[in-house]
Design brief:
alpha/beta, Rossmann fold, 4-stranded parallel β-sheet, 8 helices, 8 strands, elongated
């Protein structure tokens, strides 16, 4: 019997883990599978080994490991594969297929537009955007984030869509905020490209408030992507994609 093991990142902030669980519960209802479990890479329980154990104890004879992550970076290419290998040592006769992250997807553009609209933006407004990613040293992840910035600019017809990162890549958020502050538009919207921000929103708000006092253009912080219901369709797609992937042997398969 096939099982699905959803793998989230995990957070020290309990609310973030609960949001991830609620999001996956919505996806479960749209997927035809009797055995579906949730686990986390780090910082929360159950971990991947425990998640696989729960699947097997419920009768799983094969497992689809489906990541609940935005991009393919170190967690996808190294950390999750390593943890899967450890877990598979306990169940050598249970084949595992390892899925893809959300990646570049039109549904995410829909969510970004919703976040902009909720913050007051309308199509045709004279506004520039600053997209804020978590950041990574992985070239592929940075490339995908840049692609999403380009797609958003094409869809919204914004004159400027700049990018910045919270860690591990340049420009930093401070640098991105300084750059976009030279805008001649009537408003600047800051879009956190994150499933869950935890305590980061407070820090972003403080920096934006300080910069707003220096310039005459309103800087508006949008809500993060969040575990939006519109992203459930992507997760369901990834479940179906994973069914056709090769059996995971511990070797990392590049995600292009």
């Amino acid at each position: 019997m096939e099982a699905i093991l959803y793998v989230g990142h995990g957070s020290r902030v309990k609310a973030g883990n609960e949001q991830m669980k609620d999001f996956v519960e919505k996806a479960k209802q749209a997927v035809d599978c009797d055995i579906q479990e949730i686990c986390f890479l780090e910082l929360a329980a159950p971990d991947i080994t425990e998640g696989m154990k729960r699947c097997v104890e419920r009768g799983a004879t094969s497992i689809l490991a489906v990541p609940v992550l935005l991009f393919s970076a170190g967690h996808m290419k190294v950390d999750i594969p390593e943890e899967l290998v450890k877990a598979m040592e306990h169940y050598p006769d249970v084949p595992v297929r390892f899925g893809k992250p959300f990646g570049v997807h039109e549904e995410i553009l829909n969510v970004l537009e919703k976040r902009l609209s909720a913050a007051g933006w309308k199509q045709g407004d004279d506004a520039d955007f600053l997209m804020v990613g978590r950041g990574s040293s992985d070239i592929g992840a940075l490339r995908d984030f840049s692609a999403m910035c380009t797609h958003l600019q094409n869809r919204t017809k914004a004159k400027r869509v700049e990018k910045a990162y919270l860690a591990a890549a340049l420009p930093t958020f401070d640098e991105g905020l300084e750059s976009i502050s030279s805008s001649e538009a009537q408003a600047i919207y800051v879009l956190p490209y994150l499933l869950f921000t935890g305590m980061l929103m407070k820090e972003l708000n403080e920096k934006i408030a300080a910069k707003s006092r220096e310039i005459n253009i309103p800087i508006i912080l949008c809500d993060p992507l969040g575990f939006d219901k519109d992203l459930v369709r992507i997760l369901c797609e990834r479940v179906e994609d994973t069914k056709s992937r090769p059996i995971f042997t511990g070797e990392v398969i590049p995600y292009v």
